[in-house]
Design goal:
Length: about 475
């Protein structure tokens, strides 16, 4: 799910923060591991990332309350029951957009990236299971391959692959190979990809809120990293990574999707910056799965009271000595050397794919149609794990004219914004970044009396809190 650090040191007592590790930047300065000695393995490039990911899974952002509360079994069960009821209550919308609603994923990594081993076959199967039709790859460029010529491309088994790259804060989707410039600026990258008839999207906004580039096609308005910025309060309860084995694993085993969804928070900073940039640059909002399927942990009983820790790819990460930490002995009881004491995959592709996606309104399932719908802004972001939003509509109506998301429309006396979703929810009308109206129901009809940039948010009520479900792209009223 996350970019793994290229290099780091493991100390006996604490992990040191590295420059390019978003999770660590968000949460940790010196994370103490009380009463535990970790013997560093020279072949363990992901041990710290695994522990940080595990900790973050139970310290993800929450609108009301904290992440540990969300990971408690009774809360997960209530969330699970709410999702089941949403599925029973779901109805097809009556308002028609005139387009096919296609689920797309952006910001996906495969084995072509240095920090993933996922195969195209695994990714395609996960997409099929999750109901995804478009996968736009963002593999990290390297000198030994061309991410366009050697990338994953084409339609197979109903899933369309489109190659691309993540590099220096940008998601690039050129239509032909581009030269890798050793000292390019972000603007150079945008210009190079556009010259190859491509599109570029701003990524990881939390690290570059001051960027303002010309020629961008859009920006992420949700990225899982943003969920890790506002929940440091639980660190006091998370200083011992045994929490991974005693809290995370049982939660994931019983309620895998709901446990993953504990990561989700309302992306306020991303949306605020998007609203600031849109009047000048008109950027299509997309979601970022940032899927790697590289974060997991397996504990195997070793000799003489040792617990051997391996990552999701089978590389040895660390050795934990139960003779120096009595709590570890709990995982050795009744087991002999070679037995697996603990095994959990934290970020399987299918779970990430089910969590969130960018829905594209298009007529045909091909690469040209994908690029056209993104360029036009005919798209919305949805947290699909809650309920299938397919069919969601947001349009401007004047007389007998209907205009979709992304459209420029002229202010007229009868101009009305109409929206409909498959569930009852709270519909919020956002104009120029500010909420100006909200109402509950399956739909909304809002008369427009002044120009502006209008978008819609749809929220669902869970037992303990409302949660964002759908984020539309804007309609531009001139």
């Amino acid at each position: 799910m996350f970019d793994s650090p290229n290099a780091y040191d493991v100390d006996e007592v604490w992990f040191r923060q590295e420059p390019r590790l978003p999770i660590a930047q968000s949460f940790f300065r010196k994370t103490e591991l009380q009463a535990m000695t970790i013997q560093h393995s020279t072949n363990s490039p992901r041990w710290r990332a695994v522990v940080l990911m595990a900790l973050c899974l139970i310290s993800g952002g929450i609108c009301h309350g904290d992440a540990l509360e969300r990971m408690q079994m009774q809360v997960l069960e209530a969330t699970h029951n709410a999702v089941q009821q949403f599925q029973l209550d779901r109805q097809n919308v009556s308002l028609q957009s005139g387009y096919n609603d296609v689920r797309a994923l952006l910001h996906i990594h495969s084995h072509l990236s240095h920090d993933s081993v996922g195969t195209p076959e695994e990714i395609r199967q996960a997409a099929i299971e999750a109901g995804v039709q478009v996968v736009m790859f963002t593999n990290h460029p390297a000198d030994d391959y061309d991410y366009i010529k050697d990338g994953h491309r084409g339609l197979e088994d109903g899933v369309l692959f489109i190659p691309g790259a993540e590099e220096k804060g940008l998601l690039a989707f050129p239509q032909r190979s581009v030269e890798r410039l050793p000292d390019f600026t972000p603007q150079d990258k945008v210009d190079t990809v556009r010259a190859a008839d491509g599109q570029v999207y701003l990524s990881h906004l939390e690290e570059r809120m001051d960027w303002e580039l010309k020629g961008l096609a859009g920006t992420e308005i949700y990225n899982i990293h943003a969920d890790f910025k506002d929940e440091p309060g639980l660190l006091q309860a998370l200083r011992n990574p045994l929490t991974l084995m005693t809290v995370i694993a049982p939660a994931i085993h019983r309620f895998p999707q709901e446990a993953f969804a504990a990561l989700q928070d309302y992306p306020a900073d991303y949306l605020r910056r998007w609203d600031e940039l849109n009047p000048k640059h008109r950027l299509t909002g997309i979601s970022a799965n940032d899927a790697h399927q590289n974060t997991g942990i397996k504990a195997v009983v070793g000799e003489k009271g040792m617990l051997l820790i391996y990552d999701a790819t089978g590389d040895e990460l660390a050795k934990l000595d139960s003779n120096k930490n009595a709590a570890l002995k709990l995982f050795l009881v009744g087991r002999k050397a070679g037995d697996v004491a603990f095994d959990v995959q934290l970020d399987p592709y299918v779970r990430s794919f089910r969590h969130v996606s960018t829905h594209l309104l298009m007529h045909t399932l091909d690469e040209a149609a994908v690029r056209e719908s993104l360029a036009a802004g005919r798209a919305y972001v949805a947290f699909d794990w809650m309920c299938d939003p397919t069919g969601f509509v947001f349009q401007a109506v004047s007389g007998d004219q209907n205009r979709p998301m992304g459209a420029d429309v002229t202010l007229t006396d009868d101009l009305t914004l109409k929206s409909e979703a498959p569930l009852n929810g709270t519909f919020k009308v956002i104009r120029n970044g500010h909420e100006i109206h909200h109402s509950r129901g399956r739909g909304l009809s809002f008369p427009v009396t002044e120009s502006g940039i209008y978008r819609i948010e749809v929220w669902l009520n869970f037992p303990d809190e409302p949660r964002i479900w759908i984020l539309s792209n804007p309609i531009y009223v001139r």
